[in-house]
Design goal:
Length: 500
């Protein structure tokens, strides 16, 4: 059944996610090497160039080594002093073969794959022969190739998910187009204030020409099924354990229509649509205007807390925590991180724009990686009383972070939800007065992954464990238009209910 206006709602078009962030470390190093190339070509020392551009030799050294991004005013001054154009400095091409090798080595040594080995970094100084540089870069390339080969089965999914996570991070996890679509949908449902009611959700569906129907025989591989011809959205009779409430499920199904989604063209498109419908549902359950006002008042009182945000809008702890990642940076200038971690330590969902050093694999994916045992996301499981939020400061190689963690249970086991901020921002949150503080040096293997030497000597030759594989994270999904969905089961379901 079509929407009341005679057709589907117009699509919300978002930019396609890039493969990598626009300002990566390699870009800065290329810029630095080009500045150094032109400086040495003109026979200038760092001190002389610094004097000519009104800066210091130490600042220029940081720029040349890719550790600092220069302002446009400094770039303009450098170009003038070196007799070149700013575009010449910003070119993506390394100035020489030697510089290209140095950049490749630096990029490889900054990777999480190399950091996890616990080996020192090699500085490509003038005394290091070019042949040695060639060999080191080649070894790193082979190391990366072998790491990628070991995760080849889910590689497409992991790379696509990583690209999406980076894309969302660049936008501070905030999508104004979907915020506006959610506000418009809420108006059609008659929402005014407080928690969104089931009746309002049903009216939103009716406005699009759909009826919500609860059934107890949904295909096991689906959360909802939409009959486009019959104008029906089929939902389970009860909420799904672990966070998917009935309102959220219905809103996700509605979102496909509101956002004008077409059938996914590939796995990356499928994942993007999942991100967008989850975002839309959260933006309806915790509407932007009301949610920002609530958070602003709490920040002013220095009493921000996930549990209060959750209770004010009648949502799950996880939904409230994730919604904070949408709004705190974009509206209240607070950078933060979010994690959902299983009781086995595996990271299932993660977002950060505050520099929190998440564990990642060779592709940059966080899903399935084990988080440090010293992080609150894991230490919260050691408490006897888990009814309240757990607060902790953690010293990491990237700085000190404060976090609030709540544990819960789903059909697949226990999990924890964490929201954290850098040390300086903790002053806005309830629980900042905690004296609990730990130190994490991960990815250094001696932090929490390396076994006690005595125990290793005693048991390494005698132990033969059988690993519990995170199948839902690592296994390949069934192929088809909608990955993970058994279409034959869905079609049989729709045929059955079309006759009722």
């Amino acid at each position: 059944m079509p929407a009341p206006d005679g057709g589907r709602s117009p699509a919300i078009r978002l930019d396609a996610p890039p493969d990598a962030p626009p300002r990566a470390a390699a870009d800065l190093l290329t810029l630095g090497r080009r500045i150094r190339h032109f400086r040495t070509e003109h026979g200038l020392t760092l001190d002389r160039l610094a004097a000519a551009t009104g800066t210091t030799a130490s600042q220029l050294s940081l720029v040349e080594n890719g550790h600092r991004e220069p302002r446009l005013s400094l770039l303009t001054a450098l170009a003038g002093a070196l007799g070149v154009r700013v575009e010449d400095l910003l070119s993506s091409e390394p100035p020489s073969r030697r510089a290209a090798l140095e950049i490749a080595l630096d990029q490889a040594q900054r990777s999480p794959l190399y950091a996890g080995l616990g080996l020192p970094a090699v500085r490509p100084g003038k005394s290091l022969p070019t042949e040695a540089l060639e060999a080191l870069v080649g070894l790193h390339a082979e190391l990366t190739r072998r790491a990628d080969a070991s995760i080849a089965t889910p590689e497409e999914a992991r790379r696509a998910n990583t690209a999406l996570r980076r894309w969302m991070r660049e936008r501070d996890n905030y999508l104004p187009e979907i915020e506006e679509a959610a506000e418009e949908a809420l108006r059609t449902g008659g929402y005014t204030s407080g928690a969104l009611t089931h009746r309002s959700v049903a009216r939103m569906a009716e406005h699009l020409g759909f009826t919500l129907i609860h059934v107890d025989d949904l295909p096991h591989s689906t959360r909802t099924v939409t009959d486009l011809a019959g104008g029906r959205i089929y939902l389970p009779p009860a909420s799904i354990p672990g966070g998917h409430g009935l309102r959220s499920l219905a809103l996700q199904a509605i979102a496909h229509r509101v956002l004008g989604h077409e059938r996914p063209a590939d796995y990356a498109d499928f994942l993007r649509q999942r991100i967008e419908i989850n975002y839309f549902a959260a933006a309806c359950l915790l509407p932007r205007t009301a949610a920002v006002a609530f958070l602003a008042d709490a920040k002013k009182a220095k009493d921000l807390a996930v549990e209060d945000f959750r209770d004010a809008f009648g949502v799950t702890h996880e939904t409230a925590a994730q919604r904070m990642t949408n709004l705190l940076t974009s509206h209240l200038d607070l950078r933060l991180h979010f994690l959902r971690v299983g009781d086995d330590g595996a990271l299932y969902k993660g977002y950060e724009n505050d520099g929190m050093p998440f564990p990642v694999d060779g592709t940059g994916a966080v899903e399935g990686q084990l988080v440090c045992r010293q992080w609150p996301a894991r230490r919260a499981f050691t408490r006897r009383d888990r009814t309240t939020e757990y607060h902790q400061y953690t010293d990491t190689p990237a700085g000190t972070y404060w976090a609030s963690t709540q544990t819960g249970y789903s059909a697949s086991g226990g999990f924890s939800i964490s929201v954290g901020v850098p040390f300086a921002a903790a002053r806005w949150f309830r629980g900042r007065e905690t004296t609990t503080r730990t130190r994490s040096t991960c990815p250094d293997p001696t932090c929490c992954r390396q076994a006690d030497p005595e125990l290793a000597a005693r048991w390494s030759a005698q132990a033969w464990p059988s690993a519990a594989v995170h199948a839902q994270i690592l296994a390949p999904l069934p192929s088809g238009t909608f990955p993970g969905v058994e279409e034959s089961e869905v079609f049989a379901f729709l045929e059955k209910h079309s006759r009722s």
